[in-house]
Protein: SUF system NifU family Fe-S cluster assembly protein
Amino acid sequence: MDHARAPHHFGLRDGAAAESHQLNPTCGDEVTVQLHVNAAGDRVESISWEGHGCAISQASASLLSDLVVDLAAADLTHRIGEFREMMRSRGAIEGDEELLGDAVVLGGASRYVARVKCAMLSWVAVEDALAKLPQIA
Structure:
């Protein structure tokens, strides 16, 4: 709940290398994610984001934004895959805290199909933005 009330890395910034806007038409949650890469263009330094929706979607975006700091695209893609697997498990798989950090707390939402889309929204946005970065993808 802390991440939903006081989200980390909230607010879009100038200088983004890629951006993605995603909408969950089922509930109206939406998010815009920007990727910021290092000068060499081989690592994602950070993300900035804005959005609105339920506490799960907002907390998920905030938790994800904490994980992105200075990651190669392949590492970030791997973490997105691990999160997706946890969210599709319907509670059967506990997330790897070493890879997902505090985002493992969202594993409980995987038992509620309608909430999986809320939790996945920002992760899908980052995945889409990564695809727009051919130099590091």
Summary: The chain is about 40% helix and 15% strand.
